[in-house]
Amino acid sequence: MIRVLLADDHALVRSGFAMVLSVEDDIEVVAQASDGAEAVAAARDEAVDVALLDVQMPVMDGIEATRRIVGTGCAKVVIVTTFDREDYLFDALAAGASGFLLKNADPDDLVEAVRAVAGGHALLAPEATLRVIRALTTDAPAPAPVPEAAPAPPGPAQRRILDSLTEREHEVLLLVSDGLSNAEIAQRLYLGPATVKTHVSNILAKTGSRDRVQAVVFAHRAGLVG
Fold first, then answer.
1. Of 22, 95, 112, 206, which has the fewest Cβ atoms less than 10 A away?
2. Residue 163: which residues within 8 A CB-CB, separation 6 or more?
């Protein structure tokens, strides 16, 4: 059972998240908090596995709460915010968050984020994925849009890894690189969610990636995506 903490200064948001998660057999909401300080205390006292934190909260914001929760090893953190802001994204990741979602995400994405983070993976909103790729693959800010150039050919090691992927795994990696969730990939390829999860797990193993973000970075560096 995955034990979850919900922290948001809006009671209706917490209630909505609790309703989404409570119907899952493997997830239990064990605590709620209305500010960051309460979240830190609850994560410490309630043996929480995953904390879902808003950014803008009174007393202590979600970024500082993330830093304290992760720093003490109390729980893993997913930031869930209304604001699609780059500073929030990178501050959250720097503080140790394992996930970043927007509140307009589908309920299935929230459930998937909880399970992924509890399992030791990272999960980012599609809107955040390209920003992280850009930060990990260049030392400079993104330039103004220019006509696309052909990607550099992959090196021998990357070529071997690409060749080890099945045709379906190749398709799934491309869709992961586009920021699609497992549920969206399943719909796009007419597959079951469990089958997509297996393909993603195989991709992570073959590419030596810790999580989906690293797999996308591999695809970018290997020239699979521009």
1. 22
2. none
**In angstroms, rounded to a whole number, what is the distance separating the alpha carbons of residues 209 and 191?**
23
Would you state the structure tokens that stand for residue 149, as one six-digit string? 């150039």
The pLDDT tens digits for 105-162 are 889 889 989 998 998 877 887 667 666 766 665 544 443 443 334 444 556 777 888 8
Beta bridge partners of 78: 52, 99
CB atoms within 10 A of CB 126: 15
Q: What is the DSSP letter of 7?
A: E
Of 125, 20, 146, 23, give the one whose Cα is nearest residue 81: 125
CA–CA distances in Å: residue 218 to residues 4, 43, 140, 175: 31, 34, 19, 14
Q: Residue 126: how many CA atoms within 13 Å on its side-chain side?
A: 15
- Dihedral sign for Cα atoms in the order 92, 213, 175, 152: positive
C-alpha dihedral sign at 114, 115, 121, 123:
negative
Q: Residue 126 has which token pair?
A: 């599609």
pTM of the predicted protein model: 0.67
206: tokens are 């073959």
Q: What backbone torsions phi and psi does residue 171 show, to the nearest 5 degrees? A: -60, -45
Q: Can you list the positions of beta strands (E) in 44-203?
A: 50-53, 76-81, 99-102, 123-124
